[in-house]
Write a structure and sequence with these properties.
Number of helices: 5
Radius of gyration: 20 Å
Order of helices and strands: EEEHHHHH
Distance between the termini: 15 Å
Shape: flat
Amino acid sequence: MHTGLIQIKVGRTYLKDNMPPCPHGKLPTLEIREPVRLFPLIVLLLPLIEIAGFVVVGSHIGVLWTIALVLASTVAGSVLLRYQGFGVMNRMRAEVEAGRDPSREVAHGVMILLAAILLLIPGFVTDIFGILLFIPPVREIAWRFLKRRVN
């Protein structure tokens, strides 16, 4: 889509509208890649992997401790979301007030939200990814990866 501000590339084709081309040169391009073909497989395999994780952990520490760990991860997700979420909101506000681009802080906020959702989902595999996303250096690595993907 060519709106005069940005063009969007989906797969191998550009979406175009009736806007004239940009007079001052090349527009930034946000490329949306074709849907990942592994996504349906991941959606089907994740519950099976989580069940296997419950069985393995439950056989080592017992059923009640396994349930307690799942409940503790849910509580930890909600507490961490509140604690780190307010910190990101304050940093976003400071960036906007200083006249700087808040996109880094917005991305960190979205990753914190995703981390909390992953911790709220029962299971140990999603908990591992959720905990990793709550770690600021891991979020910074993810931000740098995402930043390179958006031109």
